[in-house]
Amino acid sequence: DPSSLTRAIVEGVDPSGRTLAATMPRYPLEPSHARALVAYLTTLSSAPSPGVGSDTIRFATIVSESVPDARRKAFLDVLARFAADKNAGTRYESRRRARPPWDMESDYIRYRNWALDVWTLSGPRETWPSQLAAYYAKSPVFAVLSGLVTGPWRPIHDFCEASRVPCLFPITDQPELEPVQYTLYLTRGVTLEAEALAMHLAAESPRSPVV
Predict the structure, then answer these.
(1) What pTM value is reported for the model?
(2) Cβ atoms within 10 A of the Cβ of 2, count?
């Protein structure tokens, strides 16, 4: 239960009162921090994460039909090649997963082939959330890898945050800065550029009227 788990973590004592071996580290946490840690641990599941199978881990990337064909092809070709190279590098490890040596089992059991889905968004932007939900319901993914759409990233951002799907480095000039829990942006886009420009203009013309 929460109290005995906290005692084991903080004091190194199991539920029967036995002191755990010295190899079990003790963590001198503040009571509020210990409660937060135990609360987090109770949210974890023994079931696999969405998109993770016994031998395959599934990802998606997101593009919109409005992206020019040449740019969309260049973007998708890079991701497809990366996934292919990744799978080529694990072809022997996948074989070893079935009968690993006892001292390597924990290493080989982690190897999985990558499957990359392309979620193509079409039509009005207000329909994108329902399209994303349909894609995810049909084939859940572990994470969204990058992505390329015209205009703000907001519809995809909101979907990933609400669905708790990690989204890594989407290509967008208009990222959503807050709240961000599941999306990792490469830059702050036009917001960063605007701040840099404002600092430059202020330094160059400190007495000019404010616009």
Answers:
(1) 0.73
(2) 12
